[in-house]
Amino acid sequence: MRVLIVAAIGAIVVVGFAITLWSFIATPQYVAGPGTQTTYAPLPTEAPPTTQPPPPTEPPNVEVPAPDKNPSDLPAPENYAEATALMEKNPAYAESVAIPTDCAVDAVDVQTASVDALEKHLNGLTACLWRVWSPPLVAAGFEMPRPPVTVFTSKVTTACGKMDDLVNAVYCGADQRVYYGKLLYVAIPKELRKTPFIADTVIAHEFGHAIQARTGILISEKAWEDKSSKEEALVLSRRTEMQADCLAGMFTGSVAAANNLSPADLKNLGLMIYNLGDDVLAGDPTVVADHGTGKARQSWYVAGGKSDQLKTCNTYTAPASKVR
User: Which pLDDT tens digit goes with each residue over 238-247?
Assistant: First the structure.
């Protein structure tokens, strides 16, 4: 299903609200399936997202809610002017996250972990994500429910429709849940698969879409995307995906010390983001798609990892050259 939005007397009317799946990896045909070999571009030498922060000092006694399977409705703009304002001048951009945040999760091997173990791990991770993101969003006047995570190994039906790309992770705005493909690791270069926080970074990206949904950004972008030309819609989509990359980097920077992530680990996480760029996956440096080039995606992830200010991740006012 898709967001059905029509203009009526200058207003945006939401008809049968549902948001398409917002994925970590772009077009499925770019992704290698199980048992296939993919040739990756040489890994760049980008600086790590952040240096090792000081020991965590954030109070640990934050009451984290259980995963919310029945969250409140997502906020929506009343007109296209408000949609633009929510994307470009969102109140959340005035807020910051706590760095460091004292929230740790057990390590997990994405290649060998069982579905149950991985699902338990990722749902535990959302507790840390909620701790980092709920305070600034509440301060900005929004709610931040804790999305449940489902790990799948076969086609899964979501409120946004059927998900048959098994090598991906997605956020569905219609049920406000995250879905993680157990086989996603096959899209990651073999030399990076043992890097700590690989799956966690993917979920942090999808949680970034949840943040966009809860702040009105996601439905606003979708409204404009449906109203735009194909070329303009792709630019908007890339802005949305790279903002999620930036938010993922900021989260990782916040909890890096608590999870004993070294500068080398942080660098490798940025390299993972690079290798999942549209051009790298397609093997074509000229490709124009909906998630962005590896260089651009990595750049936004690194920028987020170096900052505690949400305005750093305002991709909607960035030059088009920055979201290529």
Answer: 999 999 999 9
